[in-house]
Design brief:
The protein is built from four helices and 17 strands. With about 290 residues, it is an alpha+beta fold. Strand 12 and strand 13 form a beta hairpin. The radius of gyration is 24 Å and the shape is elongated.
């Protein structure tokens, strides 16, 4: 993907401008106007004439200081390769457009006769669906490489410095720090590790102990135990079944243990179960 520090008379086409507050604009140097991505280029009150070109480190339009300027590729060649009846469905945000263009060019080289069904984001990942004729290992490798690149590229602005999977009320998207803050994502993203869980934290966390794995769903307040092969306690009744947490005496802390309680599913009105873990080795967000 081509990025520049400023746009000059030598440049043409469309460019994505991202500022330090997470706002974005599309600059169209062919029509000499700019507009927010949400308007999709339609002539509207939001489109403005381009009086001066953006430069990194300076304010642009009515926005804040520009932090990134990235060229947007023309995806017409991609859209015409969609199979009949599937429309022209490229359902990703602008930051992944260069990855889609590179993917398409690489696929044409290794497998000229193919058709797309869908290209979209799902669960924060790039998904590429093609017709069943596309079976060669080289083609599958090209798609896998594009997906790996998307996993470390902000879908909104194309930044690769801090991009990773983010969460917001169980919704997932690959974003950089700036775009994640602008969209109000949770403090911790998928794959993040912490030293301890606390009552105000959100998301689903995998707590790994000396012999088992425990899933803490902080949004739905449930707990699930998965005993490992080397668990010192062995198997318990109701393992692998999410249980609503009734109270927590001690939240998970790396190097220590946790202690929780939940109603006995066999007799919830009269009996309670508790789980005290062995030593905790790792706490990682999984959703």
């Amino acid at each position: 993907m081509e990025t520049v520090n400023e746009l000059t008379a030598e440049h043409s086409g469309q460019w994505l401008i991202a500022d330090v507050e997470g706002a974005r604009q599309i600059v169209d140097l062919d029509t000499r106007c700019f507009y927010p991505p949400e308007s999709e280029g339609r002539i509207s009150k939001e489109a403005q004439r381009l009086a001066e070109t953006p430069r990194i480190g300076e304010p642009f339009g009515e926005g804040s200081t520009v932090r990134r300027i990235m060229q947007l590729p023309d995806l017409v060649d991609v859209s015409v390769r969609f199979a009949e009846g599937w429309g022209q469905w490229i359902s990703v945000e602008l930051g992944w457009y260069p990855i889609i263009a590179e993917l398409d060019a690489a696929l044409v080289e290794v497998e000229p006769d193919f058709e797309y069904h869908q290209i979209k984001e799902k669960f924060g990942e790039l998904r590429v669906y093609v017709d069943i004729k596309l079976k060669s290992p080289k083609a599958r490798a090209v798609i896998a490489a594009a997906q790996q690149k998307a996993a470390v590229t902000c879908e909104r602005c194309g930044d690769t410095d801090t991009a990773r999977m983010r969460t917001k009320q169980q919704w997932l998207q690959t974003l950089c720090d700036t775009c994640a803050e602008a969209k109000g994502c949770d403090e911790y993203g998928v794959g993040d590790t912490v030293d301890a869980l606390s009552p105000e934290m959100r998301g689903v966390w995998r707590v790994t102990t000396q012999g088992s794995t425990h899933i803490w769903d902080m949004d739905n307040r449930t707990y699930t135990r998965f005993p490992g092969e080397h668990s010192l306690s062995g198997a318990f009744e109701f393992d692998r079944e999410p249980q609503p947490i009734t109270r927590v005496d001690r939240y998970p802390v790396v190097g220590s243990y946790f202690l929780i309680w939940y109603d006995d599913p066999a007799d919830p009105e009269r009996r309670e179960q508790f789980r005290r873990s062995s030593g905790i080795e790792r706490i990682e967000r999984v959703r």
